[in-house]
Amino acid sequence: MKATSNRLTRARPLLGTFVEVSVSDAPRADMDAAVDAAFAAVADVHRLMSFHDAGSDVGCLNSAASTQPVTVHAWTYQVLELAADMHRRSRGAFDIAVAPRLQELGLLPRGADEQPSDPEEIPAAGAIELLPDCRVRFRHPSMRIDLGGIAKGFAVDRAIDVLRDHAMPNGLVNAGGDLSAFGPAAQTIQIRDPHAPERMMCRVELANQALASSAGRLDLMRSAAVAEAAVIDPESGEPPRTVRAATVCAPSCMVADALTKVVMVAGERAAGPLEHYRASAIFVSAEGDVRATTNWQGSC
Amino acid sequence: MQWMRWTMPAIAVMSAAAPAYATQYMTVAEAQKRAFPNAQLAEVQAGRVWKAEAGGRPIGYFFFDHVIGKHLNIDYSVALGPDGRVHRVDILEYRESYGGEVRDAAWLGQFAGKGPQGALDVRTISGATLSSTHITEGVKRVLAYYESHLK
């Protein structure tokens, strides 16, 4: 069958945002099947890693892992491994154990029978023990995790894998700003100034790479509906004050997603982790200055 | 790794000429075909609700609905299986406005274009978190309608 140049783009509400999958240059029926399968992979990640669903891996860990080891899906384990590595390399700036802080701020829901944690008692992600055979144990009774800062990127990576497995010549997956693209032609991504969205801050040519962004919220009290945009500084327990928005380019979307939180919290001190993960970044400081790593590939 | 100061382009206002944009992903007919490839659809409520049948047996329902996104309507469809459970939800058309009124929104929007001339070929979605919450509420309404009218 002759390949067509028709682009197929579909969107579904998943992961608390809209996920867009786009492919082209393949027979229509193959593109339809590939896009459906990519959404199925994103839905699987959603089911495994939702904080809100007591039956998800995250829900099971939060309710049981402090009393006994819990066996999780290999995907969840993979995300937890990267989270642990990121926590160590960022000296705690990335921390999936900030869930109790987010609950305190009303940014994550609290279960009906769940007691508020004593702020002094909230452990860091170092208290998560990754055991063989995808088993996980928490070393602290009030440990609760939230993978909101990393699972979206992981889901994008899985969807990209599916498109490649379906022999798509190119593809773009975008989960509310966490995106990844592959194929012979670069995709032009425009990054906006978060405080003046009609203004373009820079343009990135994305080819076989991933890009993720995070922005601080101006007013935490406005709406819980935008909770997933929230980033908390694990040290202060409050939203970061020095960086108001960050974009990271990295080989995988999971890494890019997690590193945006490191840049939001650590600012220029994120240079070490960025270098380790072969990533580049641009951020807007609270004063409105824009800083980019010297390897940043964007253009004006 | 070192940091450098980044100078924003002086004139890079992109949406002045295009204060709103729309992306059509699928028509209602396409969405019906993807949800129920081998079914006949019979309209139950004009333009809104269809019953899907295959070989004379009911295999589900298809709903066309819209919710308000950040500012403008988003069209979406919900396909329910024969058990009344959600089979799939598709965004059919997304419309959104850019500009001064979203200035207070705390997101860093991005959009993807195609090639060097692609700056206006917007594809990506902003304000998506709020909008997806509205879709979730919309799907709950559809399920409630199914329970009370169609079950």
Structure characterization notes:
Chain A has 300 residues and is α+β, with helices and mostly antiparallel strands. Among the domains of chain A are: 57-138, ApbE-like superfamily (T-fold, Orthogonal Bundle), CATH 1.10.3980; 186-300, T-fold (Roll), CATH 3.10.520. Chain A is built from seven helices and 13 strands. An eight-stranded antiparallel sheet of chain A has the order 1-2-6-7-10-11-12-13. In chain A, strands 3-5-4 form a three-stranded antiparallel sheet, covered by helices on one side. In chain A, strands 8-9 form a two-stranded antiparallel ribbon. In chain A, helix 1 runs antiparallel to helix 5 (151-165), helix 3 (74-89) packs parallel to helix 6 and helix 5 packs antiparallel against helix 6. Residues 218-229 of chain A have low confidence and may be disordered. Chain B is an alpha+beta fold. Chain B has one domain (20-97, 110-150). Chain B contains two helices and eight strands. Chain B has helices at 28-35, 128-150; strands spanning 3-5, 20-24, 40-45, 49-54, 57-68, 73-80, 86-97, 110-114. In chain B, strands 2-7-6-5-4-3 form a six-stranded antiparallel sheet. In chain B, strand 6 (73-80) and strand 7 (86-97) form a beta hairpin. At the A-B interface, strand 1, strand 2, strand 8, strand 9 and strand 10 of A face strand 1, strand 7, strand 8 and helix 2 of B.
